[in-house]
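Suppose a colleague, Dr. K., hands you the sequence of a protein chain of 300 amino acids and asks what its three-dimensional shape might be. Before reaching for any lab equipment, you can write down a predicted structure in token form. Begin with the sequence itself:
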Amino acid sequence: MTDDDTIGVALPPAHALPLSRALAAAGLRAEVATTPALVKALVREGHCRLWVFDDTPGTAFEALAKGGTALLPVESLPDHRNPEALESWCRAQIQRIRQVGKGRKVLTRPTVQDPAVWLLAGSAGATPAIQSFLNALDDDVPVAFVYAQHYDVAKRAQLAEMVSDNPSIDMTLLDTHARLAGGSVVILSPSCRFALSSPIIISLPEQPWKSRYTPSLSEAIAILGGANVAHTGVIVFSGMGEDGAEALPAYTSHGGVVWAQSPESAVCAAMPQAAIDTGLVSLTSTPEGLAEALSHRYVS
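The predicted structure, expressed as tokens, is then:
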């Protein structure tokens, strides 16, 4: 194996060390990083092509997200005092790692399996529009959605409950990190920015939004445009003001796709109209029409 085949293990010591030994026994190279400083150092070196990590407080999520590597989150950790449970868990992780590598020794970022990521952006009047959009989507559309709408942090749970009646849509509030998958909708926090390393989206609590109205749609578009994601898009829905429009030239220059709700169908036409006025919007329609077009784009 080469250095580029190395697997980074960002877990508590009681789990990282047994897993690294199991990886070595399976013929896989591992680098253990049990502190944020070690994670950042290994990310800078760039040897690890895949990271196994969990959401233990203090783990360097931001460094991982910006490292341009595949990320494999661990959803639960076994009792390290139970040798049988720990051994079984290690075997399961090795199997997951090999699946990511598609049976090859060199572990590269998954691309075909990762969903396209589209940003749903809006403000006043966007909630019913986005609800109509999501409810009109075909089942099994291989698109993950990041939802950025100006709202009060106290109403986060209400927003998630109001947005979708579609049983195939999985709504998640972004608190620490979440996995992006087809049919998932991750609602951004109005308190802080995020990082994206598909298929993982990570909250950055130490990085507040810079704009007056949050989450900042322009900042969210810029982050999406700079992420290592194969296929992305932005849909601008109802809202007051022009948030988001200024980020569209840079976003589309890298191949990003921009759609907008038709102003006449929006409660507040200013925001989609501002996007349309940039000349960079390739499709305008009602929320239902946008859903039909997206379904046709990826399913047909």
